[in-house]
Amino acid sequence: MKNIKVVDKKTFRLWCHEMELTTKQASALLRISRPQIYKYIDEGSGSDVNGTIKVICELINLLDKSERINFIIESLESESCDEPWPAKTPISKFPIQIKR
User: Which contacts of 3-11 are long-range, i.e. CB under 8 A and separated by 24 or more positions?
Assistant: First the structure.
């Protein structure tokens, strides 16, 4: 897991990919809705990544690898996220545009 500083949509997608998260897992970990996750990874959306989310991602980055893994597992379990982590098909690191 690389430490990727989240500053925009591109780096948020890369961060989610490095953390091996699906949209459902990212939603549970960051405690925001899945539609909001989609807005943050969709290049066509006018929404920029919220400053609070950037800070949360950075705080997770500060944990050492074993603490980070434990934090992710505990967070997903506490939110009853039933998808296995790490995800076999995490959020793509490549730009996407959701058709509207």
Answer: 3/61, 4/61, 5/57, 5/58, 5/61, 6/49, 6/53, 6/54, 6/57, 6/58, 7/49, 7/54, 8/48, 8/49, 9/40, 9/41, 9/42, 9/43, 9/45, 9/48, 9/49, 9/95, 10/95
For 41-55, the pLDDT digits (tens) are 887 778 889 999 999
Polymer length of the chain: 100
pTM: 0.88
Whose structure tokens read 């505990």? 74
